[in-house]
Amino acid sequence: MPDPLVARLRAVGCVFAEEEAAEIRRVLGDDDSAADAVVAARGSGIPLEHALGTALFAGIEVEVGPGVFVPRARAETLIEQAVALRPEARVIVDLGTGCGAIAAALASRLPEAVVYAADLDPLALTFATRNANRYGFTVHEGDWWDALPPALRGTVDLAVAYLPHVPTARLDEIPGDYRTHEPDLSVAGGVDGLDPLRAVLVDLDDWLAVNGILVTLVADEQLDAARAVSYVRRVHLVEG
What we know:
8 strands, globular
């Protein structure tokens, strides 16, 4: 028998209707009226995560909402590689945290560490604060390293950053629901997509501990250029 929720999602244009139906039921259970509201939101172009108010990321659930960057599944590899590279890290920073998904995942994986999350967007930080209260990290508002307490300078064992890295000319290639409902500052990386990485690298050595490292993700086609930008730095580039 056809699934009526899948049918309704397909009718409003959802390409991955089966997957979305499963996620709606996971979050809402059998609440048909709430599910209908989510379907209507999807039909108007609102991302599923915004409509549900939650997203799954790296095995945990985080709050997210309209106007805030939705955690991407491809960023989960940052968590795996960061933990593998620095399992002993005690001071961890998530730069450009958005809703705090990476900080939350790192706090969950490395419970003995103190995790700090930084972002410039006050709206994103409202959700990051909620997730911080749940997963045990602290949130700071400001531009990259400048957001952090000065006492952390020279002590950061592990910095992780899912930086904006979409080149200006390719912003229109972002799926329409995300492009419309996420702020430019969360995705736009300048002409070659690497301006945020350059900004972070300026003060990197001042903030990292002696054996500290930055783990960040770039697109496959950006890898050579990113290596050229960061070749003398303590940076681990993840392709994604």
